Amino acid sequence: MKMSLEMYENFFNSLKMGITIVDRNDVIIAVNRLFGEMVQKDPRQLVGNSVFLCHPEESRPAVQKLIDDFKKGTKTPYETWLNFRGRILREQIYPIISEEGKYSGMVDMLGDAADIADYLKRLGEWKEIPVKGLKK
């Protein structure tokens, strides 16, 4: 049985992680609803755009380096914490590799990490993260 496009979309939008898929040409090809909520953007407006347009100018060189490292096979995966407009998120970015071992794109996963941050704060192991996503 083949999965229908509707079933795929329902599955993608039901995930408890925000997901963005970027193709080998650095173009966003899919964004689920939760990712859009987390970054406060309409997912439909992100699809078809360069991944670089979703990042502030100052962070674009780092995004380019990450993608270049994925393409060379020297970096996998990338993980970080984000404080996006006061919402604590855990970001994980993985390269998508074809059966032939070639870079096909990447997937960016965002998860709400407020509970983990609170736990680390109680342990005294939390380091504050600068807030991102606010215009100066």
Overall domain count? 1
Helix vs. strand class: alpha+beta
Helix tally equals: 5
- Point out poorly predicted stretches: none
Order of helices and strands: HEEHHHEEEHE
CATH architecture: 2-Layer Sandwich
- How would you name the oligomeric state of the polypeptide chains in this document? single chain
The whole-number mean of residue pLDDT values reads: 89
CATH topology term: Beta-Lactamase
| Largest sheet features | 6 strands, mixed
Morphology call: globular
Spatial order of strands in the largest sheet: 2-1-5-4-3-6
Q: How much beta, percentage-wise?
A: 25-35%
The total of beta strands comes to 6
Rg calc: 16 Å
Question: What is the name of the CATH superfamily?
Answer: PAS domain
| Percent of residues in helices | 25-40%
How far apart the termini lie comes to 51 Å
- What is the class in the CATH system? Alpha Beta
Please give a quick description of this structure.
This protein has 5 helices and 6 strands; from the N terminus they run H-E-E-H-H-H-E-E-E-H-E. It has 136 residues and is of the alpha+beta class.
Descriptive report:
Helices cover 32% and strands 29% of the residues. The chain has 136 residues and is an alpha+beta fold. It has a single domain (5-132), classed as 2-Layer Sandwich (Beta-Lactamase), CATH 3.30.450. Strands 2-1-5-4-3-6 form a six-stranded mixed beta sheet, sandwiched between helices. A hairpin with a 2-residue loop joins strand 3 and strand 4. The mean pLDDT is 89.
List keywords for this structure.
Beta-Lactamase; about 30% helix; alpha+beta; 5 helices; about 140 residues; about 30% strand; globular; six-stranded mixed sheet
